[in-house]
Write a structure and sequence with these properties.
The complex is a heterotrimer, with 2 copies of chain A (about 200 residues) and 1 copy of chain B (about 250 residues). By secondary structure, chain A is an alpha+beta fold. Chain A folds into 2 domains: about 1-80, Winged helix-like DNA-binding domain superfamily/Winged helix DNA-binding domain (Arc Repressor Mutant, subunit A), CATH 1.10.10; about 95-185, Winged helix-like DNA-binding domain superfamily/Winged helix DNA-binding domain (Arc Repressor Mutant, subunit A, Orthogonal Bundle). Chain A has 8 helices and 6 strands, in the order αβααββαβααββαα. In chain A, α1 crosses α3 and α4 crosses α6. Chain B has about 250 residues and is mainly alpha-helical. A 3-stranded antiparallel beta sheet of chain B has the order 2-4-3. In chain B, β3 and β4 form a beta hairpin. The chains are: A alpha+beta (about 200), B mainly alpha (about 250). Chains A and B meet through α1, α2, β3, α4 and α5 of A and α2, α4, α5 and α6 of B.
Chain lengths: ~200, ~250, ~200
């Protein structure tokens, strides 16, 4: 009898915890980091079980649970996107320089400013990185240990969220680019002395 | 040297028409030649590019500056091709150079392609949506401020800018005053009864555009002033003709 | 056979409509009026069925479907809300003074109060450091060995955490700021060099 009750308590406890996680992710408009959730649930095994339960639960709903790197977010399902003509925020189109720079950062990250310029063959005009920073799509990575310690740039989770990507391995066409060696960072064009000045 | 002169203007106008970056220029040049990138004559391409750049430097240094990254690299390639390296270990064969250029162009093309692919994806706020009315829990108490890294570094940038700008430099200018122009015109037409072109009064030792423009403007204003006084006549035969002055 | 297929189509259609309603309520910033939903679904019977389905579906979840005066909204379930001590906090930007002070501490740490005032050119009001202290973004550093032994301030790990930086060195440097367009060049009034557009 006691055992039964304990079991029941355990189950009740699990259900409550699942509800808490569900409510935490659901109530936030930005992706919630795994670590934030873990602060509530403490036990990794339980949290993992809850997250996989929730993913399944919402699989065939109008809302799905998205995993973006190690963050979690509910987003409306892509199945219904054409039926949801609600107030869409029409984003101001980015300049070509900005979209290309974004792609270069996304596919080559972490990457320094001079490496970006090297790839585009143009010096980065003022304001290009600025726009991407303001959108919170890029953030500083570490500093390289080459002379001058140039800063590297990388993409953020908000970038992944915006483009419906799970992680950067999910970037369109990245496999092809990799296989054809075009993302080979070691293939730095020779004699680029200017490479590492900031 | 090259049959580029007739095409030069095309390229220039293209580059002004939302045409951005030497990547496109290089790719376009390569395509124009209908040459497989692998069989491309780098020397020719580099020369065309550098000639284009040269032309641009005279026209608009700001745009040309953007193109210099690729320009410097191509100039380097060209020198490698033209002057065989004397130090053995440093020498680079022309095949290697071809390969590198091909790699560079392909990579650029690849990046342009994927940037388009990226923006063709389903996008948050357009095709799928986040919670419209988020609730914020005590757990996020530290998030009661929504400052981003961008806010932080932008603010710092502004502080630094402000501190650097505490002293404002007012640059020397040599602008022509209307009084000066009035005196010149008056003293000239005291002795002359001929029609004279307004432009003749602009000192021709002015190299600076701003100074020239200010001289032109003040002389024109001064001549209107004299017409009002009734001591001068102005004439312009048709819209694009020069303005002529004559004493009354 | 035909009937079966039709039935299946009907069922597919119903499921899709339910997903649309679910996604609409989820993504709307205000509770959605019944009539708004009816515009999408047309058939009252179907809409009523969908709404009652959704209500049931979310009954035992961390989120419930609430009906308030003929409008529909998802809200965190009361079971868990006490658990999450919900407070409606409207996020607001840090005050300008606080942001500036934080930026200066971040870039110049460890730094004394009077040094901060020196850079900002304004004296620090009482509340400014308090706000940053309360957020646990700054902490006292050592005391300087200059006369008066003034206390220095530095940033905390929580600060790094919040701004997603691994290391204080990863803040973009002055050069990076310049290059990304965040720093304007020295402004010169009436500069002859900028004559081109005149």
């Amino acid at each position: 009898m006691k055992n039964f009750k304990e079991n029941n308590d355990k189950n009740y406890d699990f259900v409550l915890k699942q509800k808490v996680v569900e409510a935490l992710i659901f109530s936030s408009s930005d992706p919630v980091p795994y670590n934030e959730l873990l602060k509530r649930i403490i036990d990794k095994n339980i949290l993992n079980k809850i997250l996989s339960n929730l993913e399944k639960k919402y699989l065939s709903s109008g809302i799905n649970l998205y995993v973006i790197n190690d963050t979690y977010a509910f987003r409306t399902s892509l199945d219904v996107s054409e039926f949801l003509n609600i107030e869409k925020i029409v984003p101001k189109p980015l300049s070509r320089a900005a979209t290309e720079t974004l792609a270069i950062i996304a596919y080559h990250q972490p990457i320094t400013r001079s490496e970006i310029e090297n790839i585009r063959g143009v010096s980065l005009s003022r304001g290009t990185l600025d726009v991407l920073l303001e959108l919170q799509w890029i953030q500083p990575g570490y500093r390289k240990s080459t002379p001058g310690n140039p800063l590297t740039w990388k993409t953020t989770n908000l970038f992944l969220d915006y483009f419906n990507l799970k992680n950067i391995r999910d970037l369109p066409g990245i496999e092809d680019l990799k296989n054809s060696g075009l993302l080979d960072k070691n293939k730095v064009i020779f004699n680029d002395q200017s490479e590492d000045e900031i | 040297m090259l049959k580029l002169s007739s095409k030069k203007n095309d390229i220039l106008s293209l580059s002004l028409d939302g045409f951005e970056g030497p990547i496109d220029l290089l790719l376009n040049l390569a395509r124009d030649h209908k040459i497989d990138l692998t069989k491309l004559s780098i020397l020719k391409l580099a020369e065309q590019y550098l000639e284009f750049l040269d032309h641009f430097i005279k026209k608009d240094i700001d745009i040309a500056a953007e193109y210099l990254v690729m320009g410097a690299w191509l100039a380097f390639l060209k020198s490698k091709l033209l002057l065989p390296d004397e130090t053995e270990d440093m020498s680079v064969t022309s095949e290697e150079i071809s390969e590198l250029l091909e790699f560079k162009l392909k990579r650029l093309e690849g990046m342009q392609k994927v940037s388009k692919l990226l923006f063709k994806r389903y996008k948050l706020g357009t095709h799928f949506f986040k919670r419209g009315n988020p609730e914020i829990f005590g757990i996020y108490k530290k998030n009661q401020y929504n400052s981003s890294l961008y806010d932080l570094i932008k603010t710092y940038g502004q502080i630094i800018t402000f501190n650097n700008n505490k002293s404002i430099t007012i640059a020397d200018t040599q602008l022509y005053s209307v009084e000066y122009a009035l005196n010149t015109l008056k003293s000239f037409f005291k002795h002359s009864k001929d029609w004279r072109d307004l432009l003749d009064f602009i000192p021709n030792n002015l190299i600076n555009k701003l100074e020239r423009k200010s001289a032109l403007a003040s002389h024109f204003v001064a001549s209107l002033e004299l017409v009002k006084e009734g001591s001068l006549q102005l004439r312009q035969d048709s819209f694009n003709d020069n303005v002529l002055l004559h004493s009354k």
